[in-house]
Amino acid sequence: MQGGATPSAADVVVVGGGVMGTSVAFHLAEAGADVVLLEAGELGRGSSGKPIGGVRAQFSDPANVDLGRRSLELFERFRQRPGADVGLRQHGYLFALPTDDDVKLFAQSVAMQRARGVDSRLLTVAEARRLNPYLSATAYAGAAYSPRDGWAHPGAVVAGYADGARRHGATVVTGAPVTAVEPATGGRLTVVTPSGRVTAPALVVCAGAWSRAVGALVDLDLPVEPVRRQIALTAPLEPAPPTVPFTIDFGTTYYLHNADARGTLLLGASEPGTPVGFDVAYDPAWEPWLRELAARATPALADAPLAGGWAGLYELTPDHDALIGEAAPPGGTGARVLYACGFSGHGFLQAPAVGESVTDLYLGRAGTPAAHGVDVSGFDAGRFGARRSRAEANII
Prior knowledge:
This protein is α/β, with parallel strands linked by helices. The protein contains 8 helices and 19 strands. It is globular. The mean pLDDT is 94.
């Protein structure tokens, strides 16, 4: 259902029609739940609207490695389940490491990743430059690389999961912002939108950068803040760029990879000091700063002609790691509230596995041999009150 009236009842209401919400809706519906997905605008127009999203399993935290590795498996099978071409290109992720200490840190991560089934490895600078000849020959002490990583198209993933959810009986309602959540009888909640009210015993908050406001409707504190991130696109370059891995300067978060248009590259970085807010206007004034980063990391691209860019929202938590779990029933209603948000730039690449894990939580099989997903118990939102912040190092 696009727009229109909201069904009056369901087993589960999923709030958010980005990659996380559609993945959760698909996996729940596939497992037999009667699902209603509510999206305030159009599907994938929030944080999932970026043109290309990276997919990787190179993390420093074992749970993030497991989520990335499992999601890669599911991305590779996406044509068969749920059934869509998402433009997956597995040209690898290459972390360029500026210092010897960075190399030591990644050596520990690589050993852990390999023990968990990830084909990552350390490289010399010369080996890294054979994969990406734009890299500086003098700015780095080494690199880390995994050939199975790469990138895909978030819009195609959102559409694929939404279509798959509908085939399993889910109802997808767009143009339906959630304005209130009210207690209902029988351990249920009523979710209120301008297009109608739907009552269900379970609610899943997957609203990305808007999750804190949705959580507040059920007295749930989800410490998520929106921060703008920008990318720039080069004009077609001559000679045309070679195919390079998704390459990241670990010291500055400057990154680049091939764009869709022939002969073009995508350049980006996390700009320090960006204020919290929902501004998604691309600001060309950031381009000189981006060029400074490029001059150090990829000198040949320092003066590359730029052809505009794009801005979107990161959904940041205090420790830049996800919030996944189940909250206490709001107001003693007995209704269930689950959440999957705050991925701090990792949401697209982890969404397939998180959809499985949230379904495990909903079905009560998390932590049992029947579980299909990854153990996400360490991502609960209560960790901040309990002073259990996580420590993921591989953040962009």
